[in-house]
Amino acid sequence: MADRPTWRLLDTGLRGAAENMALDQVLLESHQEGHSPNTLRFLRFEPCVLVGYHQKVAHEVWEDFCAEHGIAVQRRITGGGTIYFDPLHLGWELYFDRASFGTGDMAELSARICRAAAAGLQRLGVDAHFRPRNDIEVNGRKISGTGGAFDGSSVVFQGTVLIDAELEKMLGALRVAPEKLSKRQIKDIGERLTTVKEVLGGREIAWDEVKRNLADGFAEELGIHLEPGELNTVEEGKLPETLAEIEDEEWVHLHAPASAEDATVVEATHRCEGGLVRAAVAVEPDRGMIKHVTFSGDFFVNPKRMVFDLEAALRNLPMARLEEAVQDFFRRSEVEMLLLRPEDFLTAVNDALVQLGEGDSRDSADEEASG
């Protein structure tokens, strides 16, 4: 093992959503500052829904259902889609320098790490494989989703493993389908997912066995040596203040749309190779002006503030200058995007603006019919 770099193996156990999200921020920040080593972390959650950094809670979560069933709602520091977590699921995270594996390209890192996680599951007897852009599947059914974020040269890349699942509660919390699901709808959606327990024919499996095999898969495929460790004093010292910030409702509802005042608001969702891009556009049609745009979705970008900077660049903008403004923004910005293109943001806004004309057509048709 002497020729392999040593990483810390950290198991933070079962915690609430806010504390786990605060630890994500602490570990990434501490790694960037040089206070934390490269780390593989295992974690578990009390029941919760975690929206991706660029998503809106109102678009992704049935908040009344969550409140009724004691399911916490939190926001991740990483991009990607919404995740339901409970004690039946295992989380894993890697913290490392982006040069550790000879590439800083997020797509290449994602593929390599996902293949390592799949190798760990294969050691359990689960025939798991990487499916671009960021899933791990068994015979076409998802068993693990992944995502990542940068802080300078430091990276956190994280994933989940469905050991078992309570589908009815999971689907009741997420806006993946109508609020009231039939048994048939639950069955149909459930057929897209699978769990370790199901794949192993209902066999109960110990948590330590899952973690040991995953750790071995990461170590072998990534060429590292894992040494068990604990949180250090710097990390523990940062946790209370970070936890207070994460528990704040302003963090959870970070992407609530800005007030549109007297403007008309149109929305559209664009599905592309890099994920879903949603645009809520406040406009003054009579003046041909875009007042502001709010983007959300399950995409991955670095730096994360790029979305806010793009929104600022499109504020109080003549509609006729939209394409020029988007192209100019990306031309002068240093941005990394996973399978996402500048045109995807432009398309989402244009698809929303098209609705202005459709609305005019419907109004005219209604007037003719009433006449």
Automatic annotation (TrEMBL):
Coiled coil start-end: none
GO molecular function per UniProt: ligase activity
InterPro entries on file: aa-tRNA-synth_II/BPL/LPL, BPL_LPL_catalytic, Octanoyltrans_LipM/LipL
Transmembrane segments: none
Keywords (A to Z) from UniProt: Ligase
Span of domain BPL/LPL catalytic: 34-226
Annotated CDD domains: LplA
Top-rank taxon: Bacteria
Tagged with keyword Ligase: yes
Matching Gene3D superfamilies: Bira Bifunctional Protein, Domain 2, CO dehydrogenase flavoprotein, C-terminal domain
Matches recorded under PANTHER family: OCTANOYL-[GCVH]:PROTEIN N-OCTANOYLTRANSFERASE, OCTANOYLTRANSFERASE LIPM-RELATED
Protein name in UniProt: Lipoate-protein ligase A
